[in-house]
Amino acid sequence: YYSIVNQVTLMTVNETTPLIVNSNQAFATIYTDACSSGCTLTIGYWKTHAGFTGNNVDRITQYLPVTLGCPPPQYSKGAVVSSAAQAAYVLTFNSLTGGASNGLNKLAAQFLAAKLNNLNGASNTTITTQLTSANTLLCSYGFNAGSWAALSSSVKSQINSVANALDNYNNGLTAVPHC
Fold first, then answer.
1. φ and ψ at 56, to 5 degrees?
2. Alpha-carbon gap, residue 9 to 166, rounded angstroms
């Protein structure tokens, strides 16, 4: 990690010498190593740590494969995420079709991040109901544009509610802190 000190000094100047009125320092610590376990990371962290962005190492592959919903060949709705590239695709809401406007894509992304957080050491006991609901919803509806467009507004609301609960978990807004 790096520790950075930023010092700001407010001065008034007269004709002979400057007079320091106030001086203050702020410290920032920047961690560059892998995040500690036991805390959550956002979908943004996971998608930028799939080994494709800048100098960020791949932190996802060690936790794969991850199952989302009920995947083929036994079932027709869901996926097995078995590569960092697939994970990055899901985490950017691009699962199959529909992009970010597809609530099932958002659910799949938050569900994947929650599973990765758990595999990285964060407790998921506060969201077990949401994890079960996410899996059931993805098993029922898959995550593609056609599925989302055909859903009733009450089902869409349920999907968005579960996705939001998982988003809150991934952002450390529940009982498990954010890294």
1. -70, 130
2. 44
